[in-house]
Structures are given as C-alpha cells and as structure tokens.
Design goal:
Elements: H1 2-15, E1 34-36, E2 42-44, H2 75-86, H3 98-101, H4 148-156, H5 166-174, H6 177-186, H7 196-207, H8 216-221, H9 230-239, E3 260-262, H10 278-281, E4 289-291, H11 313-321, H12 347-357
Antiparallel strand pairs: 1-2, 3-4
Length: 384
C-alpha cells in the first residue's frame, strides 16, 4: 500500500498541471477569536473564560463557564483544513465537498430535511450544524464517534455520503503536488506520503475554529442589557423556567448538554422509525434516542430534528407543548426522557421562546470559501 502511494505521488510530481504549488501558501495567522501563542499554536479567547461557575448550568444560568474544548492547532493546519473542507477531491467522484452538507451560508448545515450524498443517495438524516463542535465529545446524531478525527472517516467513506475509500483518498492528495506542498507546511516534521491521520487532523483543526459565541444573547450575558428586547428577555425566562424546562437539555452557554435524549420526534411520511442510538450504545432504553443538538444559529438551520420533520421553529416549540409522546406510534414503546412533560404553555409563551431563539444567531467568524482549490476543482455547495 505504501509503495503504491509513493508511486502515485512520484507520478503526480512529474506530471502535475495547473497552478504551481508556490501559488498556494497557508495562513500564518490564527482565525478571528484565537490568539497565537509563543508555541505557534492558536488558542481560543472568549469572555466566557472569565466565568468559573458551573452551578447554574442545568438551570439555564447565564454566566456559566464553557466546558473543555479543542484548540492548540497551528494556523497552517487550520487553513489546510479549510481547503480540504471545501474541496470535492475528498469525495469518491469529485462531486461533493464537506461544505456540500455543511454550507457556511446555511448555518453550516444544508437546508435539507435529509442530506443528499454521492450519486443522489439519501444520507438518512439531516446534516447537523458544525458551529462550536470544538466543545463536543460526541458526534453524529447517534453519538457513534467520540472525536472529530473519528467522525471524519464516517462521512468520507460512507457509501451514502461522500463515497470515497482510504486508497483513493490518499492517492488523490498524494498525487497532487500542491497538496503535498501544503501538508509539508502544516506538518513540517513529517515528509511524504500524506497520511489519513494528517487529513483527519487538518479537517479537525479547521472545524475547531468554527466558534459562535458572540450573539446578542451573549452580549446580554456579558452585561449589555439593551442587547435583548423585552419580549426576548421574557422568552429567555420562559425558556429556562421549570415549566418549559428547555434549558435542562439545551443548556447555556452552548445550548446543548450533549446527552442522548429520547424525545419521540416524528419521522417523515413514508420513512421507517429511526432507532437512533440504541444499537450504537447497545441500550434498548435509547431506542429513538438522539444527541441533543445545539440551538446556536438555530434560525439558520431549518428544517429541524434528525429527520427534518419541522419546517419552522414555532412548529418545534409547539411539538414540545403538545405533551409527552404525542407523536409516538401507538404500537411503539419508548423510554421518553423525563424532562419531556406537558407544559401547557400559552400561545404568547410559545411566541416568546421563538423570539428568544432568534437572539442566538452569530456568524461573525463565518469561514471564507477559498477562491481556488489545490485540486483545481470548483468548490461545490448545494442548495435545496
């Protein structure tokens, strides 16, 4: 295998066409929101680092500390990951990039109820947003991956998603003189050939730079009371009340507790019931269980739920307000999460929650799509 990759790499060096490798250089500065340390790596800087209290997190407390996060990548590794993220060369037939399902213009999701993979394949579930994944320890809706690096092959090599193989992936990047040049910049202590782990590391480095913590809600938390309107503040209070109990799962400041929750969400008409995390964690009690998603930039990521069952936020809130298990098929028994109750919110309270959710939008650090790609392919994104 190694000999094959080296042979392909040598052929790529001899016959490479297109822009010279020197036309591409990696950024030596950290992304916005990060500070370059004396060790040459990027560390996140946020006002939440001034808070050390975790006591009120489960009660929807505002000035609470963030959980541990991933950082410490070099600027070059982050920028290399950005090129790879937008490059269709990572897919099996050059028609899909990571950005096809995690489009920055659509909240790092894809505006589809269920993502579409290679050859028009139904990927099975909606694409979750990538905002703030640096803070997560579980990935995919069913929590089957424990790191960004472990998540990468699940998408790259899935026949329903990007449809690539390890052999083809390594041949593509090693056969490209520009990518070999960029990988040497990002991993200077390593020489050819490029490895799978380096690809996964670069993609992880880029994704950890996708931080959204400067919404109007955050400015309110940090002491600027005028950041929210009276109605939005009312919505925040309903959101974290013991009646609505939204914040017990969608816990500030990330607006997820990262737990697996059995909610009883409906499936699209004609689709079978999705068992979720049950087989992954080998737990019948988690039948129909999915990872609690973040609500950050939620106004940008419709439709909602793992199945894309809801087209707008008010429909989502109304689903919870209809009572425990209202969408569970009669012949199916689920161990519904104990937080799911029958809150009996008024129409006005439902509206105020929706108003509040709009304050969680922050795309200040939206990544920039490269104008050109090392592969020479066109950056590909998909709309509806």
């Amino acid at each position: 295998m190694r000999a094959l990759v080296l042979l392909i790499a040598a052929a790529g060096t001899a016959g490479a066409t297109g822009p010279a490798s020197t036309d591409f250089t990696l950024n030596t500065s950290c992304p916005p929101g990060f500070e370059k340390t004396t060790a040459g790596v990027c560390e996140l800087r946020t006002l939440y680092q001034f808070y050390d209290s975790l006591e009120n997190r489960g009660l929807g407390g505002t000035r609470t500390a963030l959980p541990p996060h991933r950082d410490g990548f070099t600027p070059q590794q982050i920028d290399l990951g950005r090129y790879l993220f937008f490059d269709p060369v990572l897919s099996g037939d050059g028609t899909l990039s990571c950005a096809s399902c995690h489009d920055p213009t659509r909240g790092l999701s894809d505006a589809r109820p269920r993502s579409i993979g290679i050859h028009g394949e139904d990927a099975g579930r909606a694409a979750p947003t990538l905002w703030n994944v640096a803070f997560l320890k579980r990935f995919f809706w069913d929590a089957r991956a424990s790191s960004l690096e472990a998540q990468a092959p699940g998408s790259l090599y899935s026949r329903r998603e990007m449809g690539n193989t390890p052999t083809q992936l390594l041949a593509s990047v090693n056969g490209n003189a520009i990518y070999r040049h960029l990988f040497q910049q990002a991993f200077p202590s390593h020489r050819d050939p490029i490895t799978e782990q380096q690809v996964f590391t670069a993609l992880a480095a880029f994704q950890t730079s996708l931080v959204s913590l400067n919404s109007r809600y955050d400015r309110y938390v940090h002491g600027y009371d005028a950041a929210l309107s009276e109605r939005e503040i009312e919505g925040l209070n309903v959101f974290r009340s013991f009646v609505a109990r939204c914040s017990e799962c969608h816990t500030p400041p990330l607006f997820t507790n990262e737990q697996i929750a059995v909610i009883g969400m409906p499936e699209p008409v004609g689709h079978p019931f999705d068992v979720g995390a049950e087989p992954i964690l080998d737990s019948p009690k988690l039948k129909g269980g999915f990872k609690v998603p973040t609500l950050r930039n939620i106004t940008r990521t419709a439709p909602y739920s793992h199945s894309g069952a809801f087209t707008d936020l008010r429909s989502v809130v109304e689903f919870y307000n209809k009572g425990r298990g209202n969408a569970v098929p009669e012949d199916l028994h689920l161990y519904l999460h104990w937080h799911i109750s029958d809150p009996k919110l008024t129409d006005a309270e439902v509206d105020r929650i929706v108003d509040f959710l709009g304050t969680l939008t922050d795309e200040t650090f939206l990544p920039q799509q490269p104008a050109r790609l090392p592969s020479g392919l066109t950056p590909i994104k998909r709309g509806k």
